[in-house]
Amino acid sequence: MSAHIHLTASYSLLGPEGEARAEATEVLTINLKFSLEHLAKTTPFKDQAHIERFIDALHKARVT
What we know:
The chain has 4 helices and no strands. The chain is mainly alpha-helical. The protein has one domain (about 1-60). The two termini are about 15 Å apart.
């Protein structure tokens, strides 16, 4: 699951929109209860700017 989340964010930041959305779909297929809010609260990243960029990238890929 973590790999799909990170791949989604990477694709979203790098620009291949189709790949980002495909990975986002995979994330939501694997875990129907996945939420960005929960991820933001539990992510191991310490730098708030990094967390926000990561969450924004996932949101851009249409992960909810």
